[in-house]
Write the structure tokens for this entry.
Amino acid sequence: MASSIYEKLLSTSKSKGAAYLVLIDPDKINGNDIPDFVGAATAAGVDGFLIGSSLLLDGTFDNTIAAAKKHTSAPVIIFPGGIQQISKEADAILFLSLISGRNAEHLIGSQVLAAPVIKRLNLEAISTAYILIDSGKITAAEFMSNTKPIPRNKPEIAVAHALAAEYLGFKLIYLEAGSGAEQSVPEEIISAVAKNCSVPLIVGGGISTPDEAQRKVSAGASFIVTGTVLEKNGSPALIKKFASAIHSPRRIYSQ
Ligand code: 1GP
């Protein structure tokens, strides 16, 4: 299948310097607020929406995605916390493998269960190597996946995983500190991975200010994800600041 959403993401990131993705966790936003939030975020410069949750207690996943799709021209992509998070309403799904872990369920088990469903729904699957980086405390992603994150002071271990992901053919690498992380992925890790590896990088988890987002882009991120910060304050003014910081970076990793 043509990776049209993937290509759209890459071309947006390339033309703007980097792209801004906003995570919507259906457990953390009232479904009635989705249309206004998504509409305003799109107008403020968001390039795409990720939808997913580590638990998904909310039973209206399809409706959440459909409501988001109705109010944005940007891609709406599933960022699944489990195999129940698949919906025909989405434009694509990040087909994640948690390669920093050694838990077979999250490396290949869930993927085998999900693949036939994704095929039946004709969803675009974007293969994504998911790499957890230690954030100073146990995050939901770490606890739920029963895996150890990569130590934040060991960029060489992150690079080795990223290279393995590249050689295995993954299309994206997601460097994740975990939703609501106390400390985001260190720039040292992002720049080491970007220097050694040509797969586009998504960076997320604990990014709380536009400056912090800009530093991640300058270090080599092609995509920045924020979730928690906008759950606290989803004002268009703040979203605009994030978008403009992400879209006008000063790349330092290649200097
Ligand atoms: C989590 O990377 C995303 O998977 C976003 O994290 O909620 O901390 O912004 P935050």
